[in-house]
Amino acid sequence: MENLYDVVIIGSGPAGLSAALYAGRARLNTLVIEKERTGGQIVTTDEVANYPGSIRNATGPSLIARMVEQVEEFGAKRISDTITEVKLEGKIKVLKGEKGEYKAKAVIVATGAKPRQLNCPGEKEFTGKGVSYCATCDADFFTDFDVYVIGGGDSAVEEAIYLTKFARKVTIIHRRDQLRAAKSIQEKAFKNEKIDFIWNSEVKEIKGDGIVESMVIRNRVTGEETEIHANEEDGTFGIFVFIGYMPQTDLFKGILEMDERGYLLTDENMKTNIEGVFAAGDCREKSLRQVVTACADGAIAATQAEKYIENNFSE
Fold first, then answer.
1. Where is each FAD/NAD(P)-binding domain found (predicted)?
2. Which of 137, 234, 259, 267 does the annotation list as catalytic?
3. Is 120 a residue of the active site?
């Protein structure tokens, strides 16, 4: 059958690449389909200090590069395409993309998540013109400028600390009166003299003429609105948004079971409600979304896919 693979993996973040590594090593005919960049969210991370074994100078891109090398060594194929339709019921799964159609005995969904947006006036207009969702990508543009980080979780505070390497001053704007980040991360931020905080506040509007020049924030306790203007000499400032992620699972609505937020529901073996279909990584409902758990998910999903194929396609 044309374009029939043992396993097709949708997504090439740590979960997808780990699944490809294990599937390829099991001598399964494996295909990884990625619609954007290889590596997912982790390639935007400057420092990976909490992945076991990554101690000195470990970055998201360097970690992904090593994973890709391993995947290729074990024979998994990688292509770029956007899947637009899936038919997952039945023995042979069919995935339709913009560039072609792919058939598989088993499918692993590792589509990840993308940054959640503020959804305020001006955000979309000034994305790439002062508004960013990736400190590693854009920090250098704001060397010696003021920068504002929106959010209070691990990612927001970690990226704020990273931005102090470039920015003149970093201000964290959080909608609550205390951070949600891990205590160890909070301590680093509070000790950093270049980091300030604005509590109980949210961004209501972003303004400018071609580039960000000001933003309006609202105090959620008092209701008072304040407009923050760029330093006169600078003319602009950076707004980095880190308020969580949205699972990339729209393609599977009405097909695979998911929670109210759109995260795919699986059992401990990464099995979804459809036989032969597995989910791994940030697109899956779970308590911790980190590289280490994504890799574990991918390994489990591939191993279970191998067992499924052995049990259902043996000659």
1. 5-298
2. 137
3. no
Q: Quick check: is 134 catalytic?
A: yes
- What domain range includes position 237? 131-241
Domain shared by 201 and 249, yes or no:
no
The CATH number covering residue 32 comes to 3.50.50.60
- Let me know if 81 is a catalytic residue: no
Statement to judge: residues 203 and 60 lie in one domain: no
- Catalytic one of 46, 138, 282, 297: 138
Neighbours of 103 (CB within 10 A): 15
Q: Is 126 part of any domain?
A: no
Q: Which of 198, 222, 241 is the last residue of a domain?
A: 241
Q: Which domain-ending residue is among 241, 264, 287?
A: 241
What mean pLDDT is reported for the chain?
A: 93
- 135 and 156 belong to one structural domain: yes
- Domain for residue 86, yes or no? yes
The mean per-residue pLDDT over the stretch 30-45 comes to 80
pLDDT at 135: 87
pLDDT, one tens digit per residue, over 144-177 is: 999 999 999 998 999 999 999 999 999 999 999 9
Strand partners, 207: 214
pTM (two decimals): 0.78
Beta-strand pair 113-115/225-229: unpaired
How would residue 2 be classed by pLDDT, with cut points 50, 70 and 90?
Answer: low
Q: What is the pLDDT of residues 227-257, one digit of tens each?
A: 999 999 999 999 999 998 899 999 999 999 9
